[in-house]
Design brief:
Strands 1, 2, 3, 4, 5 and 6 form a six-stranded parallel sheet that branches. This protein is of the alpha/beta class. It has six helices and six strands, in the order E-H-E-E-H-H-E-H-H-E-E-H. The protein is globular. It has one domain: Rossmann fold (3-Layer(aba) Sandwich), CATH 3.40.50. The site of flavin mononucleotide (FMN) has 24 residues, from helix 1, helix 2 and strand 4.
């Protein structure tokens, strides 16, 4: 049976909350698994028809070892392994030959002049395309009010609705189609 998989990286819990809300929305159409990048399978099983990935913006892009170490040093974050997160998972993972995908990120909602440089979700999309996935929908961005959260008002509901819409989109396609 076709399934969905949501894989996230999250330092302070906001991207995780968004991943969970997306999964709730998806669950109206597809059975769905959610995993942190650290726990996600390196070989995604052939019955996964939709892969959704996302995490925070760090220094305008996807978290990397130096920004994770910065979060530990400067923000007191608790990150068990600063070497490994979503980017590293996407560097290693093997996907089914035909799979739909979508990307999200979390970012600050201010100052706009700076946050417009944020491109974590764009990098996720590039990695997904490089893995042969077909992007099912444009990336979505979810806002936090400060570095350690919380999420801005209404963002979990918006994520739930986005997940629901992705589920509708993918469930409507024939099993062997991804474009
Ligand atoms: C090291 C570090 C760098 C950050 N750089 C950015 C940034 O460039 N742009 C931005 O919008 N938010 C930045 N933030 C704030 C993150 O967007 C915020 O911590 C994240 O969205 C919260 O998600 P999480 O709770 O899942 O970690 C940064 C946070 C950290 C810890």
């Amino acid at each position: 049976m076709a399934r969905a998989l949501v894989v996230y990286e999250s330092v302070f819990g906001d991207a995780k909350a968004i991943a969970m809300a997306i999964a709730e929305g998806l669950a109206s159409r597809l059975p769905v698994d959610v995993a942190s990048a650290r726990d996600a399978p390196i070989q995604v099983s052939g019955d996964v028809r939709l892969l959704v990935v996302g995490g925070p913006n760090h220094a305008f892009g996807m978290p990397r070892q130096s920004t994770r170490e910065g979060a530990v040093r400067d923000q007191g974050a608790d990150i068990p392994d600063t070497h490994y997160g979503l980017h590293e998972w996407l560097d290693r993972v093997q996907l089914p030959r035909i799979i739909n995908a979508a990307a999200f990120d979390t970012r600050m909602d201010h100052p706009k002049l700076i946050t417009r440089l944020d491109h974590a979700a764009k990098s996720e999309e590039k990695l997904l395309r490089g893995l042969g996935a077909t992007l099912a929908a444009p990336a979505e961005h979810f806002f936090v009010v400060d570095t350690k959260g919380p999420l801005a008002d209404g963002e979990e509901d918006r994520a739930r609705r986005w997940g629901h819409a992705l589920g509708e989109l993918v469930a409507a396609r024939p099993a062997n189609a991804s474009g």
